[in-house]
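Aim 2 progress update. The chain analyzed this quarter is reproduced below.
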Amino acid sequence: MGDATPPPKRQMHLNFFETACTGSHMAAGLWKDLDDNSRFKDRLEYYIWLAKLADKGKITSIFFADSYGVHQTLNNSADAIFRGGSQVANLDPVVLVSAMAAVTKSVAFGITGSTSYITPFLLGRTWASLDHISRGRIAWNVVTSYSTSAAKSMGKEDVMPSEERYKAAHEYMDLVYSMWEHAWEDGSQVWSVDPEIAYDPAKIHRIKFDGQYHKMDGFFQTHPSPQRTPVIFQAGASKSGIAFAGKHAEAIYTDYATFDSLKAYTKSVREAAKAAGRDPTTIKIFAATMPIIGRTLEEAQAKYERYAKSISSQSGMAKFSSYTNTDLGQFAMDEPFKFEGKAADNAITGVINGFMTAAAESTEPWTPRYLGHMAGFGGTTPKPCGTPEMVADVYQRWWEECDIDGFNIAYVSNPGSYEDVVELLVPELQKRGLMWQDYHVPGGTFRENLQNRPGNPYLGKDHPGYQFKWNKESCDSSANGEKQNGDAAA
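Predicted structure tokens:
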């Protein structure tokens, strides 16, 4: 596997996976490495550097995870996560993205927003505003928020049960689709001096929505942005989450430890899309990885060993405890125990599934000390380590055989990790014809580049949001023979 071959019908997409917090969000403790810059992630210069590097490397998007709580399941305390310095001191990524868009041309930005805590109107206006400012390069990563800590920070007694969260989220989607797709018609912005019409009121519609969880009676403030509806990202792994993704998602972030488990997940999502009446190929699935790349195998292995020495095990224990609702503090540090992986409303199903798979295959006894280091070093996220050719081999096999569309790449230690991706891995993928030489639409919208649909930045007709379009009936009647969403490979 190496020399250039004719480009395949589809192209591999790469995203940078980021959280706007000081310290590495995946490799806890790397702020102790003298070459690491994550102590300074509270400065705009970091995000400007990141955006410019991504645009240079033809990265599809920068995906921002976000949360509203602090890990405090371990010993019923947040002390360990604060001491370890991971996923704390968070900034709001919404504040950063307009500046990042201003210094780039084509890279897109996915931003997490919770259906449980941000009102539909405010999220709709904020994401539409960003879509305007970025000229259509915005995605919304839809989450329902699992954390009891976040619920209490938001003034709630506890987190809403998982199935009910998704029921409320489906209703939430209907409301934001109404704002983005129905509230303003095309051509509502007139700028006529005589007669004086800046915006034609006949083409602007009041939204009246009376749901079980969400209500609105008013005008949506923001006129249609380049994409109208931002690209919809999602990351659910529970039964409810997969059904939600099959209906709404255009892109999915997922994190599976093994080839077989990723392949099974991808199949379940594609089947859910078919059940929802959608073309399953229009859902782009991104698998999480943490590549460690060197110009030689020895260099890559040396990096791995250096990184491993800086990992914060106490941060890892705090993360594992929070994600799985299992307090590791109840066990002695070197006491083996059986991880039962019980589902809970305040746990992450995908993380539990990953650890259950790892537990079944592990030859090491699972102790809090062992798990702390594992979870601190990215958990079960695959970490291909080697030369660009070796890492590309791994990516190519997973991409070709697991029916995924690309990778969400988490850094271990920046600036080195992402610079290695751009300078070493991307050229190898391009040489093999796996990755584009340039964006499908340089300077275009996220949806045009993600779906390879030049000139069509809007939702496809099989997407549920399309049903809310102000002119759906006229579009349907005039669509004879036109290409639909998914006709072109991305």
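The chain has 16 helices and 16 strands. The CA atoms of residues 351 and 454 lie 36 Å apart. These observations will guide the mutagenesis experiments scheduled for the next reporting period.
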